[in-house]
Amino acid sequence: MALLPVDEALRRLLALAPAERRTESVSLDMAHGRILAEDVRALLTHPAFDNSAMDGYAGRHEDFSKTAVELTVIGQSAAGRGFTGRLGAGEVVRIFTGAPIPEGADCVLAQEDAERLANDRIRAHFSPPKGRHIRPKGQDFAKGDVIVHAGESMTPARLTVAAAMNHPSLSVVARPKVAILATGDELLPPGSQPGPDQIIASNSFGVGAIARENGADIIDLGIIGDDKTAITEAVRQAVRSGVDVLVTLGGASVGDHDLVQPALLDAGMVLDFWKIAMRPGKPLMVGSLGKTVVLGLPGNPVSSLVCSYLFLEPILRHLGGLPANNRLVSAQLGEALPANDVRQDYIRGRLRKNDNGDRIADPFARQDSSMMRVFAQADCLIIRPVGAPAAEAGAPCEIMLLS
Ligand SMILES: Nc1nc2c(c(=O)[nH]1)N[C@H]1C(S)=C(S)[C@@H](COP(=O)(O)OP(=O)(O)OC[C@H]3O[C@@H](n4cnc5c(N)ncnc54)[C@H](O)[C@@H]3O)O[C@H]1N2
Ligand code: MOO
Fold first, then answer.
1. Which residues form the MoaB/Mog domain (predicted)?
2. pLDDT tens, position by position, 229-242
């Protein structure tokens, strides 16, 4: 099988996502950051009634004048407990912010412009124009208005307006469920005492973190040895539990103990492609098991993480309805690089600014895909396209930001 170009591999992976996104209803207090599955329509009008924007006195514009006038306070309108009567000539109603404007009133005199006299009288020192300090019914939104739209994420302000629109819960795109399965007889979890031929399984932590950063819920299937039947059984269980994406780590290459692909095929996977024109990450494998998308990542830690940024992140954002995350920016090479071969290269690098403020990417000298230390120090990947000619220091390049 020829090596698939990276862009083509991503396109084919995304094409495996089901046409319909899964949705669920969540209560408003759990909806922060979630993506709306449907438009949210106002179930009521806000404000539901004309109300006061100030603490003061509701009255009739015609009763005030530029010189001081005395008026009679005939009652009170508070938020939640309005004035039930009607006010007439020379009368005002004591009113508080948010309280209904009494019948007959057409403006509000702010408290600061009134002098309280004895015997329920006030002296007004200002003549408010009609409508002053009145928030009219429906000025915010009317019943039936769509204010937040399908595909938008629930920010604090959108949560607030959804609550005001009287929605106790919202229909949102379900978080993608991702199962992560590490394979290999040599692997032990962190905190173990490794025997002579053993190593610590590290990949699932970084891969899981990338998945979570992209809105997914994780099911950690742990470590399974190089046992095809056991891997097949774990895969079947993951599919039965309805995961959207199954990520396998390791065993993706061509060695006698690379059993992941045969195990997945036994479980019923339809292989879409295997091996891509990329370094690191050549043995990447993609297929589908019913509605579950299978992403077989190479075991080398750097390969599995670079592939997670390039493939797991986009498929999860697509499944979860999140906008694509564009990590690509341009920079200049900090050092000369040799001509590239048939695999698109993702070279671990560090960013700095030169004296002109230009973004400079310095490649690390060692690029072995098993070296986690270099990757932990990197903040970008310098992309060298297939067949790129040798490039001098200062040459423009495309980089992928890691944070
Ligand atoms: N003859 C060939 N050999 C290899 C090829 C090839 O094309 N022909 N490709 C190489 C490339 S590139 C890569 S990448 C690796 C990928 O191999 P696998 O996906 O089969 O991974 P493993 O052999 O299982 O493991 C590779 C390496 O990574 C370690 N590992 C595995 N899982 C974990 C984990 N969860 N945490 C930390 N480290 C892990 C494992 O011990 C190995 O050292 O194949 C090359 N070989
Ligand atoms: O391409 Mo492999 O992914 O170098 O280590």
1. 179-318
2. 999 999 999 999 99
Integer Cα distance of 216 and 209 in angstroms: 9
- CB under 8 Å to 168, separation ≥6 — which residues? 27, 28
- Rounded CA gap, 148 and 216, in Å? 23
Q: Which of 185, 249, 253, 284 to mutate to test the pocket of ligand 1 (most atoms within 8 A of CB)?
A: 253
- Assigned CATH for 328-401: 2.40.340.10
Distance 45 CA to ligand 2 centre (A): 59
DSSP assignment of 31-63: -TTPBBSS-EE-SS-BSSS-EESSSEEEE-GGG
List the chain domain ranges.
Answer: 6-21+175-320, 23-46+147-173, 51-135, 328-401
What is the per-residue pLDDT across 15-49, written as a single tens digit (0 to 9) for each?
Answer: 999 999 999 999 999 999 999 999 999 999 999 99
User: Which ligand has an atom closest to residue 261 CA?
Assistant: 1
Separation of CA 286 and ligand 2 centre (Å): 16
Query: pLDDT band at 257, cuts 50/70/90?
Result: confident
186 within ligand 1 shell (Cβ under 6 A)? yes
Q: What number does CATH give the domain 23-46+147-173?
A: 3.90.105.10
C-beta of 340 in contact with ligand 2 (< 6 A): no
Q: Which atom of ligand 1 is nearest to the CA of 282?
A: 12
Strand partners, 171: 25
Q: Residue 151 has what pLDDT?
A: 97
Closest by Cα among 319, 272, 267, 324 to 295: 272
Label the pairing between strands 177-183 and 245-249.
parallel
Backbone conformation region of residue 27, classed left if phi is above 0, alpha if psi is from -120 to 50, else beta = beta
Whole-number Å distance, alpha carbon 268 to ligand 1 midpoint, is 24
**Residue 303 near ligand 1, beta carbon < 6 Å:** yes
- Given a cut of 70, whether residue 359 has pLDDT beyond it is yes
Distance set, CA 268 to CA 227, 261, 302 (Å): 17, 11, 29
Structure tokens at 135: 């928030």
Q: Which residues pair with 352 in a beta bridge?
A: 360
pTM: 0.91
Task: Classify domain 6-21+175-320 at the CATH superfamily level.
Answer: MoaB/Mog-like domain (3.40.980.10)
